[in-house]
Design goal:
With 249 residues, the protein is α/β, with parallel strands linked by helices. Helices cover 43% and strands 14% of the residues. The chain has 7 helices and 7 strands. It starts with 15 loop residues before the first strand and ends in a 9-residue tail after the last strand.
């Protein structure tokens, strides 16, 4: 665990968010937005140097934790570090993901499985590990970062698209199952975003049919879904794609 933090004395911060894939891009933007909204932030990723820089830029009320989202043991350690430092966990943002493109004829079992392990197994392990803390939290919320690839089919995206379709299903099931516990579970479905996940050539190609979202625009959607203003929203899917799915821009 690295990075500056705050005192752990009771009562501590009211809202504490653990954000996966927080080292850069969209995840870093979510960390900045929630921190600005008053959350204590636990930024989690496998990219240690970039993660440390993200947390250092936030200043106080933030820590970094190493987390491979496909490891149940590392999830348990991340939740334990969160509670030891801030006293609670109220909010989980399952943002980590991998984009893997290949034609079905060229896809490998290893490539297909890795997409599923990061994009769907990871959020499941996170929800399961965080559940004891979320049960006790006031206004507990989970947001899963899905994709417009789970709304419409894109060729050469069998692994990525199917894993995100599965994440949509997991979101719906978790929302139904956890609603009686007062835990809200929603999904944000970005279209193309200006992040390192998309190489410059791909960004340029996609921009020819409509501008890409900025990471901050996705972060704003996530921040709304975990806010008090969304306290009666669960099982929802917020598409943030500039009309990509409607083919209007």
């Amino acid at each position: 665990m690295t990075g500056p933090g705050t005192d752990t004395e009771t009562p501590g911060p009211r809202r504490v968010a653990l954000i996966t894939g927080a080292a850069r891009g969209q995840g870093a933007a979510i960390a900045r937005h929630l921190h600005a909204d008053g959350f204590a932030v636990v930024a989690a990723d496998v990219r240690r140097e970039e993660l440390a820089a993200t947390v250092d830029a936030l200043g106080g009320r933030a820590i970094a934790v190493d987390l491979d989202v496909t490891s149940a043991d590392q999830w348990e350690a991340a939740i334990r570090a969160t509670v030891e430092h801030f006293g609670r966990l109220t909010t989980l943002i399952n943002n980590a993901g991998v984009l893997h493109r290949a034609a079905i004829a060229e896809e490998t079992p290893a490539g297909f499985e890795r997409s599923w392990r990061v994009n769907c197994l990871g959020p499941f392990l996170g929800i399961r590990a965080a559940l004891p803390q979320l049960r006790e939290a006031d206004g507990a919320a989970v947001v899963n970062t899905c994709s417009t690839g789970a709304v419409r089919p894109f060729p050469n995206h069998a692994a990525y698209g199917s894993s995100k379709w599965a994440l949509r299903g997991l979101t719906q099931i978790a929302a139904a199952e956890l609603a009686p516990l007062g835990i809200r579970v929603n999904a944000v479905l970005p279209g193309p975003v200006q992040t390192p996940m998309l190489d410059p050539e791909t960004q340029q190609r996609l921009a020819a049919t409509g501008r890409l979202a900025t990471p901050d625009e996705i972060a704003a959607a996530v921040a709304f879904l975990v806010s008090d203003q969304a306290s009666h929203i669960t099982g929802s899917e917020l598409v943030v794609d500039g009309g990509q799915c409607l083919r209007i821009g």
